[in-house]
Design a protein that fits this description.
Elements (H helix, E strand, L loop, with lengths): L1 H22 L2 H18 L1 H4 L31 H37 L1 H15 L3 H12 L3 H27 L3 H8 L4 H37 L11 H8 L8 H27 L7
Helix pairs in contact: 1-11, 2-4, 2-11, 4-5, 4-7, 4-9, 6-7, 7-9, 8-9, 9-10, 9-11, 10-11
Length: about 290
């Protein structure tokens, strides 16, 4: 019981140290606040949007930003502000879910390869070499084209490309950690291999994975927008930010606000995630503990 309490106290103190270190980075805090606000807005979107995001008003076609329509209206008279708010649900969730899937699968592969080594490591790493030999964007486009457009298919297509990087990163950390004394102690008390991997190795190897996942979400949001822009992601009339850019590109001279606001939403979200990722990297760096 005492060991359990000591372990919890150590975890709590480490968490508080990370939070204190993160709070010292003002840009990281700004990024975190922006992301939290966007998530809250996305969750509450059906209740706070001023207009139905599918409602068309042909009398307001290409309406410029005003007090009635904050971001103006598109070529079908739909309120851009409402569509961007509702579109946050799709853009952010696609980024988070694709990276979550990639992290779970990649960490599983990397943990097995890093712990067992030998022929298991060689087999898994050579398979990842084959995947990484294909340019990432090209592979995403091919998988998306095979699976077809749609929310779930786009997530799968994006996740597949991030698995090798996550696996290699965790493998490298596992190779460093598996020779430490606490692993030898776990072996000496007959801990199972599964318990050593899950309870000892992975928790001590997760710092770079957390940072990589945070920044990976930013990349995935951009990639999702890109796939939707070329017609392989979310399809109209769903208000995903990339799909909104795709639908507005032919009106860029006539109504530039159709391009500006969805692009600004993507840029702000990606910037906030990168700022938060930089802050997490510094907060999780053992060299900064003191």
């Amino acid at each position: 019981m005492d060991n359990t309490q000591a372990g919890k106290a150590k975890k709590n103190s480490e968490l508080m140290r990370i939070l204190r270190q993160l709070s010292k980075n003002r840009l990281a805090v700004v990024g975190l606040v922006i992301i939290v606000i966007e998530i809250i807005v996305a969750v509450l979107a059906p209740y706070i949007i001023p207009y139905d995001y599918t409602a068309m008003d042909m009398a307001s076609t290409f309406a410029k930003p005003s007090l009635q329509h904050f971001f103006g209206c598109d070529d079908m008279g739909r309120d851009i502000f409402s569509r961007i708010i509702y579109g946050a649900r799709f853009s952010i969730s696609m980024g988070v879910l694709s990276i979550t899937i990639a992290t779970v699968i990649g960490c599983t592969v990397g943990a097995v390869a890093g712990f067992y080594g030998g022929w298991v490591d060689n087999l898994l790493m050579r398979f990842l070499d084959i995947i990484q030999a294909i340019p990432g964007l090209l592979m995403n486009i091919v998988i998306a084209a095979i699976l077809g457009p749609g929310f779930l298919n786009t997530i799968i297509a994006m996740a597949f490309g991030y698995i090798p990087g996550m696996a290699r990163m965790l493998r490298a950390q596992m190779l460093k950690e598996r020779g430490n004394e606490y692993i030898e102690a776990a072996h000496s008390i007959n801990c199972s291999k599964f318990r050593i991997i899950v309870s000892h190795l992975i928790p001590n190897c997760m710092s770079p994975i957390i940072v990589q996942a945070t920044m990976g979400v930013a990349q995935a949001i951009t990639l999702a927008a890109g796939l939707s822009f070329i017609g392989l992601g979310i399809q109209p009339p769903t208000p995903e930010w990339g799909a909104m850019l795709s639908g507005a590109r032919q009106f860029i001279r006539q109504a530039p606000h159709l391009i500006f606001f969805p692009g600004l939403a993507i840029a702000i979200t990606v910037l906030a995630l990168n700022l938060m990722g930089d802050g997490l990297r510094d907060a999780l760096d053992p060299k900064l503990k003191n």
